[in-house]
Design brief:
globular, seven-stranded antiparallel beta sheet, 4 domains, 12 helices, disordered N terminus, alpha+beta, 19% helix, six-stranded antiparallel beta barrel, Thrombin, subunit H
């Protein structure tokens, strides 16, 4: 009886499963794989695209003379008995070579590359795709973007050049090609996709806003072209994330919109001037967003506006959150700086703000950073903590020139002479003098007066980046 019951139950369960199968939709059958249908499908290739773009990508070789430090052995008294003092303090000179890539962006011979490719170079040689060599001259170097613009004399010949595409048109998943000269093996092409946009945590330049791609980028690719599928320049390859020096599928390129601002006006000798916003702020995190009623962490919280600057004139004030510029989302402070830096001086932009838990829009007219007050650069002499330092009145123009994202007021050190008292106390360019012996410092004249009247001990307060450093000297 028990066996019959179990059999009956088993048949019933099986019947139930069959019934479900009868009413459930059939699973989608896997797509059948087929062989290429015709010669056309066999010939799908990037070759036509590469054929057009490759002649505009060049190899760059640089040379510079470096002095090697002498061996400590030559300072040893035993060795000095035999060799004398002829080698002490001397270092052997050697020629250091490096390589990279570049992109011709104007047929007359204007080339863009990474600044770190040519930094300190005494000679720059550009090798074209057809193996011709030219000596190049640096027209513009920009540490803040890690870009440099070169020129070669072609004798009037027009070269193949790449047009720039609007990098804001890119989307994650778009196909791209990277062309450069990795490891000095010769021009190489790799393919991949755009892995991410607006990477702002890569600390390789002041304006951190990069295209991320998995197209293989290796040493020597720096300064090479990242091109879109229409054959235009979408970015300049700049860096890789790597544990062993090779490509791990995480490469970064400077967007073409930033490249465009650096090369603009260079042929006519125009000076690179970036627009000024006139406000400082901090990235909105989850805690700040919750306190302001923002639906999610987004934008930059304004902390200070410069009197009479573009932000103040447009009505921005402390506590506002800038969330969009001309419809482009602002994720953090780096994104805000990038968006403003890629605009021309004189442009008027629409900013979307979050204020008192409401959205509103304002128009901001961007201007060139003013030289107000005049810098009055002064070299300080004498036996005091700032001896050997050059100080100047901070202004928006000087802050931009020095690549500082600080309130443009006060007195800043622009230079520190080696071996001077200021150098021995580890003062550095970019330090801002706040107080000397409890006297507040606002101008260069304040520094002069404080030094003339001070006596031991010296008490100074210096702002360095986000920190305020206090020190006491003597006494």
């Amino acid at each position: 009886m028990r066996l019959d019951s179990r059999l009956s139950a088993g048949w019933a369960a099986l019947a139930f499963v069959w019934a479900l199968a009868a009413v459930a939709p059939a699973a989608a059958a896997p797509e059948a794989k087929t062989v290429p249908n015709g010669r056309g499908e066999l010939q799908l290739s990037y070759a036509p695209l590469v054929k057009r773009a490759a002649p505009a990508v060049v190899n760059i070789y640089t040379r510079r003379t470096v002095r090697a430090m002498p061996s400590p052995l030559f300072s040893d008294p035993f060795f000095r008995r035999f060799f004398g003092d002829q080698f002490s303090g001397m270092g052997a000179e050697r020629v250091q070579n490096s390589l990279g890539s570049g992109v011709i962006v104007d047929p007359s011979g204007i080339i863009v590359t990474n600044n770190h490719v040519i930094r300190g170079a005494e000679e720059i040689i550009v090798v074209l795709n057809d193996r011709r060599e030219f000596e190049a001259t640096a027209l513009r170097t920009d540490e803040r973007t890690d870009l440099a613009v070169l020129r070669i004399d072609t004798g009037g010949e027009r070269l193949a050049a790449l047009a720039l595409r609007d990098s804001d048109e890119l989307e994650v998943g778009d196909l791209v090609l990277a062309i450069g000269n990795p490891f000095g093996v010769g021009q190489t092409v790799t393919s991949g996709i755009v892995s991410a946009l607006a990477r702002t945590t890569v600390g390789i330049a002041d304006f951190r806003f990069f295209i991320q791609t998995d197209a293989a980028i290796n040493p020597g690719n720096s300064g090479g072209a990242l091109i879109s599928m229409d054959g235009r320049l979408i970015g300049v390859n700049s860096a890789i994330y790597s544990r062993d020096g090779g490509s791990n599928g995480i490469g970064f390129a400077i967007p073409s919109n930033m490249v465009r601002t650096v090369i603009a006006g260079v042929a006519s000798g125009g000076k690179l001037v970036r627009p000024w916003f006139g406000a400082t702020g901090q990235t909105v995190n989850a805690e700040i967003a919750a306190s302001l009623g923002l639906p999610r962490p987004l934008g930059v919280l304004i902390e200070e506006t410069y009197p009479g600057g573009p932000a103040e004139r447009a009505g921005l004030k402390r506590g506002d959150v800038v969330t969009h510029i001309d419809g482009r989302e602002i994720s953090d402070g780096e994104a805000l700086r990038f968006r403003i830096a890629t605009l021309p001086v004189g442009a008027t932009v629409t900013m979307k703000l979050w204020r008192t838990e409401q959205e509103r829009s304002v128009s901001v007219a961007l201007i060139a950073p003013p030289e107000t007050p005049p810098r009055e650069a002064t070299a300080l002499r004498g036996n005091h903590p700032l001896g050997g330092a050059t100080v100047a009145n901070m202004s928006p123009a000087l802050a931009e020139e020095m690549g500082l994202d600080v309130p443009p007021r006060g007195v800043i050190l622009t230079e520190v002479r080696r071996g001077s008292p200021a150098a021995q106390l580890r003062f550095a360019p970019g330090d801002i003098v706040l107080r000397i012996n409890e006297r507040e410092i606002r101008t260069v004249d304040d520094v002069r007066n404080a030094i003339a009247r001070a006596a031991l001990p010296w008490r100074l307060a210096i702002r360095r980046g986000d920190r305020v450093v206090s020190l006491t000297v003597g006494g």
